[in-house]
Automatic annotation (TrEMBL):
This is Gustatory receptor. Keywords: Membrane, Transmembrane, Transmembrane helix. The chain crosses the membrane at residues 32-50, 70-88, 122-144, 150-172, 234-258, 264-289, 334-361. Coiled coil: none annotated.
Length: 366
């Protein structure tokens, strides 16, 4: 197991999420947290899947619900493997934090820290809202599904507690993914700051100074790309698992709306659950896609440099053109299974496919 040790005293670099803190601290308690969480999720999923495949699925339930239960258990299994993967690839995460600290440490720590702290507070508030949402939906679902069988007994509350612990694991994993995205977004602050200063001062800059500033800015962009690739490598499996589950879950919940056999109470519950799961999907996708968006957004600022009267030198023109060519490749950001970039076009394609499958689902599982 990797023995890399890294302690970050800088509050803007030290992660705030439980998973991030555990990865950075590398102590006995963090090791126990990772392995207990991972083994618990995997064991729970394996047991439930074994029970499903050996005893069979309850055929009294609609087919959509039966397959949705399989999806939920598969996600629990994959999430346990994801947490284990985080621990095994801890060195990649530490390498990213080192790159991040290098990028923002020179004159940009204040602005980057302000950006990170703002979003960390927002995400912490979201975690609280998500916890209350999960507690509410789990209680309602357990009541509708099991209350008539077991009544208001210890088993009723035990069922709620077990499911809630699993859902909290889902929330914490999403918090960690969003936090990683926020750090990646913060690395573009130095580039934007340099370009803004560059555009403001270019009338008073000499061609040599302009060349040097363009080269420095392009160097920051290169370092940012390198750091994001580390993070993409670290989160590759987590992003794949996230979309596998939440896209599938939203599709199943959407398909339930067209079931005529559902009661009004189940329809209200399904709508409430669909809204929550879709919110998770939208929030995480927004932060993943925003990394790509920020990498392309600086194109106009760099292009504006070509209109400067001080960009007539061959060196300056070449440097700016190289910068524009690199930005125009549009390959910076997180990837889905290493096949396609999580970008605005990916989001529109995902929404179209999900809607199509969701509408066809009731006919597929009759």
């Amino acid at each position: 197991m990797d023995q890399v040790k890294s302690i970050y005293s800088d509050p803007q670099t030290e992660p705030s999420s439980l998973l991030g803190c555990s990865l950075v601290r590398k102590n006995v308690s963090s090791q126990v947290t990772f392995w207990v969480a991972s083994i618990s999720l995997i064991s729970k999923a394996v047991y439930r899947l074994y029970f499903i495949f050996t005893t069979g699925i309850d055929h009294r339930e609609p087919p959509i619900i039966r397959y949705e239960q399989l999806l939920i258990q598969m996600y629990s299994l994959c999430l346990g493997l994801t947490i284990m993967n985080f621990e095994f690839n801890r060195s990649v995460y530490i390498t990213y934090l080192d790159c991040y600290q290098t990028i923002v440490s020179e004159h940009f720590s204040k602005s980057s820290s302000k950006f990170v702290n703002k979003w960390v507070k927002i995400i912490r508030f979201w975690v609280l809202i998500a916890f209350l949402y999960e507690l509410t939906t789990i209680t309602i679902h357990t009541y509708l599904r099991y209350f008539h069988k077991i009544g208001l007994q210890v088993n009723f509350f035990a069922t709620i507690l077990v499911v809630l612990i699993s859902q909290v694991s889902y929330i914490l994993s999403m918090q960690f993914i969003i936090e990683c995205c926020i750090y990646c977004q913060a690395t573009f602050i130095p580039i934007n700051t340099l370009l803004n200063n560059f555009l403001h001062q270019n009338k008073h800059s000499t061609p040599i100074k302009m060349y040097r500033m363009a080269r420095v800015t392009r160097s920051y962009y290169f370092e940012t790309i390198k750091s994001i690739r580390y993070m993409d490598k670290f989160l590759a499996f987590a992003v794949l698992v996230f979309y596998f589950y939440f896209s599938g879950r939203c599709i199943f919940l959407f398909g339930r709306f067209f079931q005529g056999s559902s009661t009004i109470y189940l329809q209200i519950y399904n709508f409430f659950r669909f809204f929550g799961e879709a919110s998770y999907l939208v929030l995480v996708t927004y932060h993943l896609a925003r990394v790509n968006r920020l990498s392309v957004k600086i194109f106009d600022k760099v292009y504006a440099l070509t209109h400067s009267s001080n960009s007539d030198s061959v060196e300056s023109i070449n440097e700016i053109n190289l910068f524009l060519l690199r930005i125009d490749r549009n390959d910076v950001g997180f990837t889905f299974a290493g096949l396609c970039l999580v970008s605005p076009s990916f989001v529109s394609s995902l929404a179209t496919i999900s809607l199509t499958v969701g509408l066809a689902l009731p006919n597929l599982f009759k």
